[in-house]
Design goal:
The protein is mainly alpha-helical. The protein has one domain: Up-down Bundle (AhpD-like), CATH 1.20.1290. Helix 3 packs antiparallel against helix 9, helix 4 runs parallel beside helix 6 and helix 4 runs parallel beside helix 7. 29% of the residues are buried.
């Protein structure tokens, strides 16, 4: 199955070891499918807007990496690598910028290659400023026009939604593993 076809529901279902959590995901299948459709429409539109499709996946990888979700960042990088319109130098630059953004306490790597052009560096810098709440966000998007900045914000929003759903479910799975039985309810104050 191509990575573009691996939806959020598939990702969440693979994470679940608990029947109650799996049923909760199934009950929300329509909402989860809506998120997948929004992601596809935003990252691979039939008519790209200000940002070409490969650059959209690069921004998605940056946002996921900044949130420390390496599996999601690698998914976007793998989709990008499978595309015919992304050359090896561009892919290398995306991987390096993503790695740099994944270390949120460090400044963006000064030695990051510029094979993706100044646009890629500007997009990485702007993404980090946007996600980190840097006061002078516009300064980081100096090389970007207003349409590009808007589209980066939209891409960031949908990727953040995916990241938070995966992280939230991960926390539920960990909490469920600590509970006795299948959400047995033992130890609740109202059961006394």
């Amino acid at each position: 199955m191509p990575l573009e076809a691996v939806g959020l529901g598939d990702t969440l279902a693979r994470m679940c070891t608990n029947e109650a959590l799996r049923k909760a995901i199934e009950r929300r299948s329509d909402e989860i499918e809506d998120i997948d459709q929004q992601e596809r429409a935003l990252l691979s539109p039939p008519i790209p807007g200000a940002i070409p499709v490969p650059h959209r996946y690069a921004v998605a990888a940056f946002v996921a990496a900044w949130h420390q979700e390496q599996a999601i960042a690698q998914r976007y990088q793998s989709i990008l690598a499978a595309r015919e319109d992304a050359d090896a130098a561009f892919l290398k630059a995306v991987r390096i910028w993503s790695r740099s953004l994944g270390r949120s306490n460090e400044p963006v790597s000064e030695d990051a290659p510029d094979e993706g052009g100044s646009w890629l560096g500007a997009a990485a810098s702007y993404s980090r400023a946007l996600l980190g709440g840097t006061p002078q966000i516009a300064q980081h998007g100096y090389w970007l026009n207003s349409d590009e900045r808007e589209e980066i914000g939209q891409i960031a929003s949908i990727v953040i939604l995916r990241v938070r759903l995966v992280a939230g479910l991960r926390q539920c799975v960990l909490a469920a593993q600590e509970l006795p039985g299948e959400f047995s309810g033992k130890g609740r104050s109202h059961d006394v």
